Amino acid sequence: MSKPPKLSLAAIVASANPPAKAPLRPQGAEIVSLALAPPPPKPAATLKQRARQMSVYLEPPVYEQLRDLAYAERTKMHALMLEGLDLLFKQRGAQSIAQLTDTQAR
């Protein structure tokens, strides 16, 4: 009993996809290329993409108090920390966060 002939991958692919016939064009038909629409504008970068991350190590009682304040005021701890930085900048005569971010947007 003889072995069946080995098939190559190219032969299998060629038999599965017969060559496509060239599309027929009626006489006088033109190929028209359409201009693509410009890409949609990119959305503004998120805070995570714009900002720099910084770790803050807080003692447990300090962390708990900050968390309690945020819960009581129904805000985020991040907002309270930014408020604290703004007060620090004001005390030291530096520009506020709003002033700093306004000048960078220009």
UniProtKB/TrEMBL annotation:
According to its UniProt entry, this protein's organism is Methylobacterium longum
Q: Tell me which residues make up the Antitoxin-like ribbon-helix-helix domain.
A: 53-97
Ranked from the top, the taxonomy reads: Bacteria, Pseudomonadati, Pseudomonadota, Alphaproteobacteria, Hyphomicrobiales
InterPro entries in alphabetical order: Antitox_RHH
Record's protein name: Antitoxin-like ribbon-helix-helix domain-containing protein
This protein's superkingdom? Bacteria
